[in-house]
Amino acid sequence: MSVTLVLRTQDDQISARHEGNVLATTAVGSLPTVALAQTEPGEAGARLLLLALLPPQGGRLILDIPATDAADAVPWEFARLPQGQFLACEHDLLRLVDADAPPLAAGASGGLQLVALGADPLVDDAGQARKGYRLQLDREMRQVRRALRQSGKEVMGWRVPPTPAELRRALSRPQPTWLHLACHGDVDFTPVGPIARLLLEDDNGKPSLLLGRDLSAMAPGHTVRLALLSACDTAEGQANLARALVHNGLPAAIGMNGKFWDPLTDDLAGALYEALLQGQDVAVAMRQARLALAVNDPYSAAHMVGLPVLYARRGGTVPLPLPPGRADLQRLDAAANLRLPLEIQAPRTLLGRNRELHDLARLLHPDAGAGAPGAGASQPEICVATITGTGGMGKTALAAAFVERFAWRWPDGVVGVSFAAGEVDAARFRGELLERITGDAAADLPPARQEERLAQAVRDWDGLILVDNYESVQQAIEGTDAAAQAAGQAIHRVLLALARAGAGLLLTSRQNPVGLPGERLFPEGGRALAGLGTAAGAELFFQYAPTAAGRREERRYQQLAAAVAAATAGHPLAIALLGSEFQNGDVPPQTFLQNWAAELAAASSLALDPHHRTFAAAFNRSYEQLPAAQQARLRALSLYGYPFFAAGAYYAWNGPAPEPPADAALAQTQAQLRELTGRTLLEVDAFYGDGTPATYRFQPAVQQAAAARLDAAERAALPPRLAGYAYWLAQQGYGDIHRDMGLNRVVRLALESLPPAAAHLSGTARLWHLRRVGWLLNAYGQTKLAYQLLQDALAEARALAEDEEALRLRSSLLYELAGLETTRGDLERALALYTESLQYDEQIGDIQGKAASLSMMAQVFLTRGDLERALALYTESLQYLEQIGDIQGKAAS
Questions:
Q1: Comparing 284-298, 601-615, 730-744, which segment has the lowest mean pLDDT?
Q2: Rounded to an integer, what distance in angstroms lies between the CA atom of residue 709 and that of residue 583?
Q3: pTM higher than 0.85, yes or no?
Q4: Are 445 and 436 spatial neighbours (Cβ–Cβ below 8 Å)?
């Protein structure tokens, strides 16, 4: 049952009528304002309730109030029942808008789309970093995605870029639409009257106002079925935007009658869309959303539950029939346009870099040559930019946050390659770029053809390439290792070709300039990236010192956080180290920095810039807090310039024995690694599915600082120890890298270290290692190197005494070499090697090996066109597989 109350104001009295009868009259002055309703919700709610007007339990209450009537400014949604519960949580409450509009279509022809826009400008109108509260847009959008994903309905989600132009484009699509706007909202009181405003963004993250009347023009009522304005003051007073949207044709709109608390927006949106997607009426869904607020955060919700106001025209709340199916959420993910490696990931919250994000966006604007914001029409297009700064200053975090926020500006997205692990591998670089741009790594092509394909691909490719830690390539070019020089030069040659082809490039490097045509350094003016401001630096300190964060209201902890930010000149890594040290120590905040000046002076050097000195001092302090045994462990790990498993630490600390560590030893190793990660001297690189650390890595600056403390004796002792890990890792990767992508990545990054480890192994262990490494090298496209390594290993194996182990080893090496000969096209040589391998298998009775060799020989004959011979060999292989019950092998044959 529904009850419609007609509310009208006359002579400062509000009368409530039902079916023409006056039920009650109340003085306007006796009713609370929104501000009072939020500060004193209990008292205000009681003053809003007229018991004689209540509908039956579970009914609908419709308020019919003209837009110009004073009753429309009353926060009726805060009304409370005598028992204290909110009226709007017990009944479906809406405000009626009488508007001339065509009747709603019954179905969702073309499929429903949910258009979501989240805007929170980086800077103010003057280009300075915006102060004040930052919206938690990711949380809100996550709840929207979750509601759609779990709905079981055919609906498409779009998260559109936060500009008025992109919103207009999204709303011009002729299909039923729910509009979700999450942004700042306010009312501008002008000489011609109050005007509702939404704070969106321009292409570079600067504020761009969207006036309420312009949004009304963008949102046609025959397609936009509902608008949720998740923004403050969007149902406020005479500038009531939600009401205006319904008046101009929308069936229903929800706005905020005041300042809504942002942390509750995810609860509101999630519950609203969940109910709507279950087929609920909009008014029922709004009541469910209020209930979610009241249940999830009762104290805060008491002050917010009445702020959302639902306006609807007659029939505007009817459910929208949706067919069952699967929600399409690809376009609702802001990061869907990114293809970045694990080493390049944006922090959940990038502190204190809003101005830098905006300035970088202006510098790298893809339309800079066409008079983009902040660029003159005659300015040449900027295709290449390099972020410069000292180690640990946050170059990678800034670059990753930039592309995550602005990837929408490049229709073909953003791809990334990182040299953070110090691996300068030209083949990998070309392959990763080709795969991320074209979907095909073209590993079978020679280097020159790969380079040509890359240059051709980017000519018609409208995307951005992010290259992180490029100083590794520059250092390789400037070094004395001929192979590293050649690899670095090949990589730089590719980037030169891409820059000349007009590809957008964003690089990070400690060394500058990189030396590419059209390159612009960031920050501009020859400056390196500066440290964080005091407020952001203090917040970062609290992130790494949760004990201090829990007492941040105390003045001494506020002073400590600000002092750390100032003492480090805002260097993020130095702040993180000091925060972790405070968390792990027992020094009172008043004396934590009392020796800092002396420590900073001790870290000074003519070769160090001021920011590097602050990092060196912070590292020294953290390092000195470690027991001597842990210091030695950290120094030993510094030889890992790539991510490593806990087993890598075990071997580095305990010796070169190739036997894998026992579970107890590995658990002890994990505990010792946990102390290092707890002090930010080491990072967890990736986790297993159960949340336990899988791999570890260094921040480059920390690795270099730890390595500098290795003495000559330690350096000489470590390679044999690390050989144990190389042996173990090759064992793990052999045959499994195609099934486990996490393992694939770790092995690939460590690949260069695997062949040299053989020099520190002996006997058959050495040769088995070379055999596995040969397979891995071939799997990663380094066939020539694999072939030479396996040839040398076979020569050594032939010199061994002919026991069963030696024969098994020879057979395995011959088998692998035969496969490489097949790849090279020398089928006669391949058959000879397979035949010899088969003879050794027969000598030792290796039925599995015989079946494998016969199957591969059959493949060679098949390639040659000898189908009879191939069939006979497959049949013989199958018989052996049946003997040993190899079901998988039988199926393959």
A1: 601-615
A2: 25
A3: no
A4: no
